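A reminder before we start the practical. When you read a complex entry, don't treat the lines as separate problems. The point of joint prediction is that each chain is placed relative to the others, so the output describes one connected object in space. Small molecules and nucleic acid strands, if listed, are placed in the same frame. In the example below there are three entries. Take a minute to note the order of the lines before looking further.
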Amino acid sequence: MNNAKIAEILTRVRAQKPLLHHITNFVVMNDTANLTLHIGGLPVMAHAKEEMEEMTAIANCLILNPGTLDEEWVHSMNIAGKKANALGIPIVLDPVGAGATKYRTKVNTDFLQNLRIAALRGNQGEIAALAGAGGKVRGVESVEDVTGIESAAMRMAEKYGAVVAITGKRDIIASRDSLYFVDNGHERMASITGTGCMSTTMVGAFIAVEKDFALASAAALACFGLAGEIAARQAEGPASFRVALLDAVANLEPEMVLRNARVTKMK
Amino acid sequence: MNNAKIAEILTRVRAQKPLLHHITNFVVMNDTANLTLHIGGLPVMAHAKEEMEEMTAIANCLILNPGTLDEEWVHSMNIAGKKANALGIPIVLDPVGAGATKYRTKVNTDFLQNLRIAALRGNQGEIAALAGAGGKVRGVESVEDVTGIESAAMRMAEKYGAVVAITGKRDIIASRDSLYFVDNGHERMASITGTGCMSTTMVGAFIAVEKDFALASAAALACFGLAGEIAARQAEGPASFRVALLDAVANLEPEMVLRNARVTKMK
Amino acid sequence: MNNAKIAEILTRVRAQKPLLHHITNFVVMNDTANLTLHIGGLPVMAHAKEEMEEMTAIANCLILNPGTLDEEWVHSMNIAGKKANALGIPIVLDPVGAGATKYRTKVNTDFLQNLRIAALRGNQGEIAALAGAGGKVRGVESVEDVTGIESAAMRMAEKYGAVVAITGKRDIIASRDSLYFVDNGHERMASITGTGCMSTTMVGAFIAVEKDFALASAAALACFGLAGEIAARQAEGPASFRVALLDAVANLEPEMVLRNARVTKMK
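Here is the predicted structure of the whole assembly.
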């Protein structure tokens, strides 16, 4: 597809500096806060009931990531989610570990049913679990390719009116009207924790500035995958890869996207 | 001013290894724990009500950073703060995101009114919000220069008897009797999350060993800014800058401080 | 001793990809999740009461690390611990800061008395505190060598039927039947926060695949120490050392272990 559009959205993220309100897990909080700054946004991590509505109200996107969920945090996510819906602020949901326990599957299903989610970003196992399409999740990792994952994504998109973005070797982005494949990325990205959560933050930053959420999600994942490719060239292991990945996101130029984004619009 | 004094305080931090009890936010906990070790102190991160008084009692400084606050954590901060006051252990407060929500403004104002704070370290927006002097905070970022921030700092220092340390392009350190400017630092420091929180930890380490809290704060910020300058020379992006910054803090020699600290005593 | 055995266990970790359920502290969660991946396992960090039993049931090892403990988290650790015991899933306990406050000493003693712990991994001060053998803990750091620490370890191992693994300049691993010394490692490992917690995760990964828990613990600490030695050669400070350490764990080859592990079986 037209990479100029992707480059243009990236430029808009940098210009508008969207504020991304994260209610997210303890493991990746530092990474996703830094990533938000590096791609051009402003992060805020906040979960207190007392400030949920007010904090959400000033955000340009709400990111719900129940990776280290408990009752209190889920409660705050619901308060924030309802406020975001009331104000038309888009929500990105990362259903970390859905399928691993009944509790995780239920919490994420409830979010999908009770909130209007702009984009659901997960791995194959998580999305398959939520779609009732099988898939195997060990802890928070998807451990095998899921047959028919594309049609599961399209069914989920239809059912909830949300963009469904599945990251993996090939990223799949489905909405009611469209289907994209993104072939940027590098296998090193699976060697560190948090790349899934980071890709969710990327989607949040792009959705905050572009109303075509499917296009925004595809653009976000192309940019992140491209940063992964650049980082892989200079890494000597997973930890130096992580440093290089964050640097590459910050140093990503629209021109690189023009030349190297690999997004296919199928529908 | 006399850089020998600053170098001497740094040497004292390394010799005395102050224990810094942090009750701090989830985003930066790893960074501030590491920074504490690198500058020469010992970190402990603890928040359980059951051990608050006992843990605070063995510390040389208490650092309160309600960046990811909630009711329970604020409660623990109050217990620790009262104990610190009772024992004469200095408290450094980092009012993360004050001004962004009413709850954050209130929690931090309550700390200032109910506890004896040795040093308040924030950005321009946060301090202006607490001083009722305007300032704009988006999430946890100060987004514009505040007119009259210097006099706001001096008024706050007068009102609460605390050192008020504002970090930015030029750091401003005000107390009832003194005013310092620190011109060390590098713009890269704004490209990662947590440099504000880290500067608070630096202030805590220096205040733990030097009774002139304004001088200690100025010295801490000069050392941290200097580490930032050194790190910026070798960084290829924000994430490699962060690694280099922490290395530079650990490798900072009194001699470098002697030559390169840029602190001006105005009063 | 025979390094081939150590290399073989490492190979088994990589082949079996054990799932390590961590209930751990906020400071190191990212490091220990990454380390789990790098050594060849799968991490999951989860603490909600609602999913504790189910999450523990799918794990190959449970890691309890009450470094930033509070009542709720201790409660979840107990639920998970009982489930692990019921199913024969080994538990590794890291008694962070035991000895620093009465609460920490009590919580960890309760775990040892109420749960069947496969391995207890701590520093000299923490183990000495739990053994009632003196030792000085400031915050979470052991600040001096403890006289008679070896016999304290052996007494603890006898009393609780657990492997007691003490990391330090020389690592000591004691069980009812055996005693190992490990002389791999580098002083740089003490310059960053979390190496203790990381060594606990290493022990967990090895215990998950090898029923001789003392041998598994010695092998784990030899591999981690060796990674520290490799990393120290290229680090310019503690933060670049941390990156290099995680890279070195991921890049560790059985062949390096064959040549360079320094484990002595004393009994």
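Discuss with your neighbour: Chain C has one domain: 3-265. What might explain this?
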